[in-house]
Design brief:
This protein is an alpha+beta fold. 50% of the residues lie in helices and 24% in strands. The chain has helices at residues 3-25, 104-110, 115-132, 137-141, 145-160, 179-229, 232-247, and strands at 26-29, 33-39, 44-45, 55-58, 64-69, 73-82, 88-99, 165-176, 253-256, 266-269. The longest helix has 51 residues, at 179-229.
Length: 271
């Protein structure tokens, strides 16, 4: 009976050690994550095998697992850049990215978990300065925003594509100019708009005048043609036709034949 506690104590200690080792060996990879295995007594970071996927994993307690988020992520970057004429421009851009999951081991080995600070952000800053430096403040403020956004995306992608980072999109959220430059551009744009409106009114008025001239010319041509076709003989024939129709009418009247100018009839009604 006295030996039982002595035998049971090592067993209990052994179970505790096993539980501790299992706890250290168990790794759970959450949804949207992947793990990079580091073998302490092996080749170090495993780069020639796919990363550990979602779920529960058992690894040797002397090895380590570095967990990365592999879903699309967003980083917002605010920076100061110079325009083509040397003016200071404040640019705010949103970058959508995710690690290249097929090369996650190489990313960890060469860039570490700080790959955003070491690779992505320097790339976006460099591309933004390069692109914005090709445009004037007026172009940045108005018509070239979409073109600038696309160019920054393309230049950043060229920088990071061999750095095991997948760039999905770059969105330019805001471009802030110096207040004096912004006010000058807005005044210029307003003047251009007013000038365009004035030119439109002039063109509209000119078209209306041309329309009236054409209509008046058409009426004049019609009257001239009509006047040229109405001879005395035609007028007398028309007068005779009208006299016959009036004579057949039941209304009381007096018709004096041949009493008007050029022998046209004069019609006297009962009023």
């Amino acid at each position: 009976m006295e030996k039982l506690p002595k035998i049971g104590l090592p067993i209990i200690i052994g179970l505790i050690i096993v539980i501790i080792l299992l706890a250290k060996s168990a790794v759970t990879i959450e949804s949207g994550e992947a793990g990079v295995l580091f073998k302490t007594f092996g080749e170090g970071v495993v780069v020639d095998e796919p990363p550990m996927g979602e779920g529960f994993h058992i690894v040797a307690p002397w090895n380590k697992v570095f967990v990365y988020e592999v879903r699309q992520q967003e980083v917002l970057e605010k920076m100061n850049v110079l325009s083509s004429n040397g003016l200071d421009i404040k640019l705010e851009a949103s970058v959508w990215f995710q690690p290249d999951i097929t090369n996650l081991g190489k990313l960890h080995q060469e860039k570490s978990e700080m790959y955003k600070e070491r690779v992505l952000l320097p790339a976006i800053r460099s591309a933004a300065r390069s692109v914005v430096g090709r445009y004037t403040p007026e172009q940045l403020y108005s018509s070239k925003r979409d073109a600038i956004q696309q160019e920054i995306f393309e230049e950043t992608k060229n920088i990071v594509e061999d750095q095991y980072v997948q760039l999905n999109e770059v969105l330019v959220r805001d471009v802030t100019l110096p207040p004096t430059i912004k006010d000058a551009i807005e005044r210029k744009l307003k003047q251009e708009q007013e000038s365009l409106e004035y030119e439109f009114r002039l063109i509209t008025a000119d078209k209306e005048a041309q329309k009236q001239i054409i209509e008046a010319q058409g009426k004049a041509d019609a009257n001239r043609i009509l006047s040229a076709s109405l001879t005395d003989k035609i007028l007398q024939d028309k007068g005779i036709e009208a006299t016959i129709k009036l004579a057949e009418s039941p209304n009381s009247k007096v018709i004096v034949i041949g009493s008007g100018d050029s022998g046209m009839p004069i019609i006297l009604g009962n009023q």
